[in-house]
Write a structure and sequence with these properties.
It comes from Tetragenococcus muriaticus 3MR10-3. With 373 residues, this protein is α/β, with parallel strands linked by helices. 42% of the residues lie in helices and 24% in strands.
Length: 373
């Protein structure tokens, strides 16, 4: 899978830009605050219809403009697809092959991307919310059903929490409606739990392969999905659903008291272990960074395994955050098999370590100043 060109208008600090990509490694070179990250953000938005940096879509539209758009052509093994994302104050619109898509799940997955930025190194040490977001984004790209269930789950969760609060304040008295919301929550949430467990198993396999390579086989990496639902058999979807229903029933009185849903995918987390030692609590900073690097890079092979095509990799100034050994490992992992877009303020950390000749563009104040090789 490759992005062969990009056309953006009124996006962040870019009035309009159109560029073709010919090589597998593309470098956006320039000083800070010139628009390098905005270019990566536009590719990410084209793939996932959202920004990794903000939940407010209006921030993506250039100041005093009514709308923005991002367009690009995706080259796959057997087909070439034009993708379009339009952003306006009234909302967003997506098109595949010039045909508008009504459902998010029918659009996402046409262009698979993995973003690796300095903040992703905090995947291990960051909050559980960071890791849940990581799971939802990555599984959603390869599994449209999961994406649908996740959206429905969040809607139901919001409704249920509001109703619990109304019951506590005696603004509502209909217990039957709470039971209906609970059934919907279990229906959507159990499918999410099942999918997450299966995904984490495959993620662990690929991440451990990479981690052992970096540590020269001295460290074994284990990734564990920590659920608020206790289940004896995570490999059977019906058993997961039954277990979720039992947990909801157990905490019913507590939820009424606290006015919030206490169990479900929105309360879950990931744990990482090196040689059975909890990396989040006892690992060194180096081990935590290596774990984050291994987990992020594991997505490359996992997505290839699931979809038959490698994703596009976006590296936002991440090289400056890694030591020489991890830089080398990163470049060895991606070279020759995956299209990579990389931002940097200097070529010293990148070009000398590459065995392939990259395509280099210089970015200055929202302008692409030609190719500088």
């Amino acid at each position: 899978m490759r992005l062969t060109n990009l056309h953006i208008k009124n996006f962040r600090n870019y009035e309009e830009l159109s560029v073709d990509f010919h090589k597998n490694v593309v470098i956006f070179l320039g000083e800070n605050a010139q628009g390098k990250t905005n270019l990566l953000e536009s590719i990410y938005a084209l793939a996932l219809t959202r920004s990794p940096r903000t939940n407010n879509e209006q921030e993506l539209i250039q100041w005093e403009k009514e709308q923005a758009f991002v367009k690009g052509n995706v080259q796959k093994k057997y087909t070439k697809l034009p993708l379009e994302l339009f952003l306006a104050k009234k909302g967003r619109k997506t098109k595949i092959n010039h045909i508008e898509q009504k459902k998010l799940s029918s659009y996402i997955g046409q262009l698979n991307v993995i973003l690796f930025a300095p903040e992703d190194l905090s995947l291990v040490k960051g909050s559980p919310q960071v890791r849940r977001k990581f799971l939802d984004i990555e599984i959603g790209q390869i599994d449209p059903v999961y994406l649908y269930e996740s959206v429905q789950y969040q809607k139901t969760l919001k409704q249920r929490n509001l109703y619990l609060k109304q019951l506590a304040e005696h603004k509502q008295t209909d217990e039957l409606y709470l039971d209906i919301l609970s059934e919907q929550l279990i229906e959507h949430g159990s499918k999410m739990l099942f999918a997450r467990q299966q995904f984490v198993k495959r993620l662990e396999y690929w991440a451990n392969q990479l981690h052992q390579k970096i540590s020269q086989s001295k460290e074994h990496l284990t990734v564990m999905y920590r659920s608020s639902v206790t289940c004896k058999d995570w490999s059977d979807e019906q058993t997961v659903k039954d277990a979720f229903a039992q947990e909801i029933a157990k905490v019913k009185s507590k939820e009424r008291l606290r006015q919030i849903t206490l169990v479900g995918p929105h309360r879950d987390d990931l744990s990482f272990f090196i040689n059975k030692k909890d990396v989040q609590t006892f690992g060194s900073q180096g081990q935590q960074r290596t774990t984050a690097l291994s987990v992020k890079l594991a997505e490359i092979d996992l997505i290839k395994e699931e979809t038959g095509e490698y994703p596009v990799l976006l590296l936002d100034d991440v090289m400056s955050e890694l030591d020489d050994a991890r830089q080398l490992h990163l470049l060895e992992t991606i070279e020759g098999k995956i299209q990579t877009f990389l931002t940097t303020t200097t070529l010293k950390q990148v070009k000398d370590k590459m065995s392939v000749e990259p395509e280099i563009f210089y970015i200055n104040q929202g302008q692409l100043e030609g190719e500088d090789v």
